[in-house]
Design brief:
Number of helices: 18
CATH architecture of the largest domain: 3-Layer(aba) Sandwich
Helix content: 55-70%
Distance between the termini: 66 Å
Number of domains: 3
Strand content: 5-15%
CATH topology of the largest domain: Rossmann fold
Number of strands: 5
Mean pLDDT: 86
CATH class of the largest domain: Alpha Beta
Structural class: alpha/beta
Low-confidence stretches: none
CATH superfamily of the largest domain: P-loop containing nucleotide triphosphate hydrolases
Strand order of the largest sheet: 2-3-4-1-5
Shape: elongated
Radius of gyration: 28 Å
Length: 342
Amino acid sequence: MLYLFLAPDEYLLGQRLAQLKQALGDAEMASLNLTELDGARTNAADILYHLGAMPFLAARRLIIARGYLANLEGRLGTAKSPNRGAQDEARQVLTCLADQPAENDLVFIEEKLDKRRALWRGMDDIAGIEKLSRDGLLAIEEMATPDARQLPGWIVKSARQDGIAIEGRAVQMLAAYVGPDLRRLRQEIEKLRTYAAGRSITADDVKLLVSDTSEALIWDLTDAIGLRDGRKAMRALSALRRNDANPFYLLTMITRQYRIMIKVKDETARMSGNEYDVAGRVGERPFPVKKAMAQSRNYALAQLEAIMDRLLTADFAMKSGADADTELDILVGELTMPRLRN
């Protein structure tokens, strides 16, 4: 079988290649029937030689070519200045791929291919990648890293495949805390499954076990400040300190959240939209934009700008010798005072 893996995420690619390697059978024999080729250093003759070779004491062979098609595509040249050698090689490859041995698998791994070029569309009367796919001779698999919209669905699907139950809020929190690092997400899911011991994974489990939750905790702090809830704000600040967060880092992150609020408030005043739309326009990730859209409603734009001035004052004081933790306590106290209400 022929495969084309496009724009592969490192984790997804590793998982898929592991499946194909497992199909080779016994691990000791598998290594004798596996060939990996660097596309920049190989040619059609190498690929077709390995593709035509018989498996050795096994049912199948697996040939992996990384970047070969993109390299060949780049060598083909243009209509005005074609590279005849590369064109002959492309014709040779495409012709042979349409009649590949059934007992061997060939995998092309490519970051990107131009669907307007000859390799994709075909050459003369020779089928290109597009037609090979339509005819069932080549399987094209898109393996891009899930974006912010897709990530919660990927977490649910990944957990479900292993019989792991996870609550919706825990899914959203896990996506926000870890982001699109699929390998780390899988590690965190496994850790959470062990802790949950058969029950559904909850948001509290994620809060307790998943590392680097500072951003979400800082949003808890800014949320409490926006509500002028001094007690809740100080609890959030204490939680951040328990995570050994440096006070200068905390001030930087608090300042960042208010900058996002200003950007979001200014943008939504001009044009509405959901968090994904607004995130694209202001150049931020959807999770902090969604939080900022909700929290910025507690402020007039002038108040947000005044808070930014106060944060600048706190930064100067901390860098001029004031006790950093005390300065943060005073800052949070001032920002939650009732006189800051609309």
